[in-house]
Design a protein that fits this description.
27% helix, Metallo-beta-lactamase, Chain A, 7-stranded mixed beta sheet
C-alpha cells in the first residue's frame, strides 16, 4: 500500500493512495499559490500523512507551507490527518468545513474550524476562488463539495467515484464505472438528496471533476449529472 503524486497542472497536484484489497484509490488535492502556500483538499488517513509529505517534497513542494485545509465531511480518509498538518505547518492553518463537521473537528482535534455556508465563496489566493456547495445526506449529513471557479474544477469528494487507481484525467465515458461503484458499495443513502445536490452542482460551469476515489473526469459532465439524477437505486 503506497501512494503516488500526479501533476495535473502547474499549481495542482493529486496525491493518491491505492489500497489493493479495496480496489480503491484515496485522493488528496494540493493547490499551490504563486508564493508556494498550499491549500489541501482532503487530508487522507493520519497514518499515511508522512508519505503524502514525502511525495510533495519530490515535486518541490514544502508541506510546512500548508495554509488552508478543506474537510468535505467527517470521515477518516477526509480529515484523519488534520492533527499531523497542524504539527508541521509553519503558518496559521485555516480549516474549512460544513458547520456540522466543525463541531466534530473541534471536539476530536481541539481545533477551531471555520464553518462555510452553502454557496459561500472564499478566495484562498489570487486566482483560486473556492465555492462551497453543501451536499448533505448524499454520503454523510455534513457533506460538501468544492468548486474552483477560475479553473472550472469540481472537487467532488464521494460523488462521481470509480474503483481502481488514479490514472489522471479521463476523457472517456466513465458512467458505467460510476454507477457500478454506487450499486456495489451502496454509499449514497438518499436519491432525493442526491438529486438536490446535483441540481446545485449543475448551476456551475464545470469542465473537470476530481473525485476522492478514482480518476478525474472531463467531457460528459452533463451526462454524468443527468444520468445520476435518473439513477434507479433499486
Amino acid at each position: 500500500m503506497s501512494s503516488t503524486i500526479h501533476t495535473i497542472k502547474e499549481n495542482l497536484y493529486v496525491n493518491s493512495l491505492y489500497i489493493d484489497k479495496l480496489g480503491l484509490s484515496f485522493n488528496q488535492f494540493i493547490v499551490v499559490s504563486k508564493d508556494k502556500s498550499i491549500t489541501l483538499i482532503e487530508t487522507g488517513f493520519r497514518k499515511n500523512f508522512n508519505e503524502v509529505c514525502t511525495n510533495m517534497a519530490r515535486v518541490g513542494l514544502i508541506p510546512e507551507n500548508i495554509q488552508n485545509v478543506i474537510v468535505p465531511h467527517f470521515e477518516a480518509d477526509e480529515m484523519g490527518a488534520v492533527p499531523e498538518v497542524l504539527k508541521i505547518s509553519n503558518k496559521k492553518i485555516n480549516l474549512y468545513a460544513h458547520p456540522i463537521c466543525t463541531f466534530g473537528l473541534s471536539d476530536i482535534f481541539d481545533v477551531k474550524a471555520k464553518p462555510v455556508k452553502d454557496g459561500e465563496i472564499i478566495s484562498v489566493f489570487e486566482g483560486c476562488s473556492l465555492k462551497f456547495i453543501h451536499t448533505q445526506h448524499v454520503h454523510q449529513w455534513d457533506s460538501l463539495v468544492v468548486y474552483w471557479i477560475e479553473q472550472k474544477i469540481l472537487f467532488s469528494s464521494d460523488l462521481f467515484i470509480q474503483g481502481g487507481e488514479f490514472t489522471g484525467i479521463n476523457s472517456n465515458n466513465c458512467l458505467n464505472e460510476i454507477v457500478n461503484s454506487i450499486k456495489k458499495d451502496n454509499y449514497l443513502p438518499s436519491h432525493n438528496h442526491l438529486v438536490n445536490a446535483l441540481n446545485k452542482i449543475s448551476k456551475n460551469d464545470i469542465e473537470t471533476i476530481l473525485p476522492m476515489h478514482g480518476s478525474g473526469l472531463s467531457n460528459n459532465i452533463d451526462l454524468y449529472i443527468e444520468s445520476l439524477k435518473n439513477l434507479n437505486f433499486e
